[in-house]
Specification:
This protein has about 350 residues and is an alpha/beta fold. About 20% of the residues lie in helices and about 30% in strands. It has helices spanning about 35-45, 55-65, 85-90, 115-120, 160-165, 195-205, 225-235, and strands at about 1-5, 25-30, 30, 50-55, 75-80, 100-105, 105-110, 125-135, 140-145, 150-155, 170-180, 210-215, 220, 250-255, 260, 265, 270, 275-280, 280, 285-290, 295, 300, 305, 310, 315, 320, 325-330, 335, 340. A hairpin with a 5-residue loop joins strand 9 (about 140-145) and strand 10 (about 150-155). The longest helix is centred in the middle third of the chain and has 12 residues, at about 225-235. The model has no long low-confidence stretch (mean pLDDT about 95). The structure holds guanosine-5'-diphosphate-alpha-D-mannose and magnesium ion (MG). Guanosine-5'-diphosphate-alpha-D-mannose binds near residues 52, 82 and 88.
Length: about 350
């Protein structure tokens, strides 16, 4: 069994974070995101992994290497320009000789891949797709199935009025199992989409296209600021089975600093006196000066937050310098190396 991870998108909705850090390696719990998928694949006994990349491939390779550090073999297939989801899978075709599990490279999940593969084999399917339920399906591919889990309809991001009429809450979770014969249905050297082209074509041809609904299993697409933060909140409240944070104390904190049990600080952080850190993740070498309050936020490596500053529900990129008494309120996202001057509070 092989795996293909589709990791060539531009990560536009996560900008400015993805300007220097492509989406596959944005930190989640202070580790490159794709490491989660790689570990989950390894758990399922899949060690032959192809990363389909296009945007900033060298940066990704520098971080993940050949996979030997993680006990897997990683091969990179670099598209000259993004070829679409199915186009990317076709482009990786020369490396594919068996049934493959194909993953969108931006989903964080504890869905058990072994079960997914077993169901695919039991159904003798040409293609299988994992579905999950979400409250607001508008941002996803909606999938209608019958009582035998056969896929009946695939509608990528339908308009809100269409969604109301459809009454479908099962969406494409971005996990597929595909037989090599599916490759033949994708044109060579063409931008081609699973969602808009291949799946509708499988249905038209009446191929054996099955679904597996993952009930009560954690799933999130981390591709927007709000969901990136949500993934961290879920991680800190231990909602993700395969992914627990190992909280260590390799940082320096003043005695009067208050750090709650959920928060996770990487090594080299320095926390000043009177600081409060609530439900937040701080990556390596973050400095928080006296009296600052950090809540519900994620702070990337090497950033400094000045004294009395107040950061809430925000993401602060690499090596930023936030001045004294600056207030960064809900849902702000600051790109790498942002400098904000001190605020002089005159009483
Ligand atoms: N190699 C490569 N080449 N990868 C690509 C390309 C490409 O041209 N285009 C997109 N990808 C990768 C992205 O990097 C991402 O990991 C994955 O394919 C999905 O792309 P997104 O841009 O994140 O799509 P989406 O989130 O709007 O929608 C997709 O995912 C939803 C679930 O999260 C669709 O598959 C929806 O149907 C699905 O519900
Ligand atoms: Mg996505």
């Amino acid at each position: 069994m092989q795996a293909v991870i589709l990791a060539g998108g531009l990560g536009t909705r996560l900008r400015p974070l993805t300007l220097n850090t492509p989406k596959p390696i944005v930190p989640i719990g202070n580790q490159p995101f794709l490491l989660r998928q790689i570990n989950a694949l390894k758990e399922a006994g899949i060690r032959d992994i192809i990363l389909s990349v296009s945007y900033q491939p060298t940066v990704i390779k520098e971080v993940l290497g050949d996979g030997s550090d993680f006990g897997v073999s990683l091969k990179y297939v670099v598209e000259p320009a993004p070829m679409g989801t199915a186009g990317a899978y076709k482009f990786a075709g020369t490396h594919l000789n068996a049934t493959a599990i194909v993953l969108n490279g931006d989903i964080l999940t504890d869905i058990d891949f072994r079960t997914v593969i077993e169901k695919h084999k039991k159904n003798a399917a040409a293609a299988s797709i994992v579905l999950t339920r979400v409250d607001n399906p508008a941002a996803y591919g909606l999938v209608e199935t019958d009582e035998n889990n056969k896929v009946l309809r695939f509608l990528e991001k339908p308009k809100p009025d269409e969604i109301e009429k459809l009454n479908i809450d099962t969406i494409n979770a971005g996990i597929y199992v595909l037989e090599p014969e599916v490759l033949k249905l994708i044109p060579e050297n063409e931008n081609y989409s699973f969602e808009n082209q291949l799946f509708p074509s499988l249905l038209k041809r009446k191929e054996k296209f099955y679904s597996y609904i993952a009930e009560d299993q954690y799933w999130i697409d981390i591709g927007t600021h709000q969901r990136y933060l949500q993934a961290h909140y879920d991680l800190m409240s231990d909602k993700i089975k395969i992914f627990q944070l190992e909280r260590n104390k390799n940082y320096e904190a003043a005695d009067s600093a208050e750090i709650d049990d959920r928060s996770y600080l990487a090594e080299g952080c320095i926390i000043g006196s009177g600081v409060k850190i609530i439900n937040s993740v701080l990556d390596k070498n973050v400095i928080i000066e006296d009296g600052a309050v950090i809540q519900n936020s994620v702070i990337w490596k090497g950033t400094k937050i000045g004294s009395q500053a107040n950061i809430s529900a925000s993401v602060i990129g690499l090596e930023c310098s936030i001045g004294k008494s600056v207030v960064i309120a809900s849902s702000s996202v600051l790109g790498d190396k942002t400098i904000l001057a001190n605020v002089n509070i005159q009483l």
